Amino acid sequence: MGMMAEFKEFAMRGSVVDLAVGVVIGAAFGKIVTALVDKVIMPPIGVLIGGVDFASLSITLKQATVDAAGQQVPAVVLAYGEFINAVLQFIIVAFAIFIAVKAINAMHKKPEPAPAPPAADPEDVLLLREIRDLLKK
Predict the structure, then answer these.
(1) What parts of the chain have a pLDDT lower than 50?
(2) What span, in angstroms and rounded, lies between the C-alpha atoms of 41 and 36?
(3) Among 9, 51, 97, 111, which residue is least crowded by beta carbons within 10 Å?
(4) Taking a C-beta distance cutoff of 8 angstroms, is the pair 46, 54 a contact?
C-alpha cells in the first residue's frame, strides 16, 4: 500500500495537476487553431493566389496501381500543402503561447528594489574631514 500512497501523493502534487490541465487545454487549443488555419486563413490565401486549395497541394511520386492479385496499391504522394498548413498552425500556436507567457510575466513583474543607501565613509576619510574642518578654524 506504500507505493499507492506515494503515487497518490505524486499525482495530487500541484505541478502534476497543472500539467494535466495544460495538456488538455493545449489539445483543445490545437483543434481551434487547426480549424482557424484550414477553414478561415487558408481559403482566402488560396483565392488570392488563383483558387488553390493548400490542403490538396501535392506531388505524386508514384501513381496508384493494381497488383497481380487485383488489389489496389495506393499512390505515393508528397503532400506539401498539408505541411504548409501544419507550419502555419505551429506559428499561430507559438505566437499565442508567446503572448500568453508575456502577459503572465507582466503580471508577475516584481518591483525593482530601492537603491541601497550610500555606504558610510571609511574612518580615515572621516578623520581627514575632521582635520580639514579644524584647520579651517
Answers:
(1) none
(2) 6
(3) 111
(4) yes
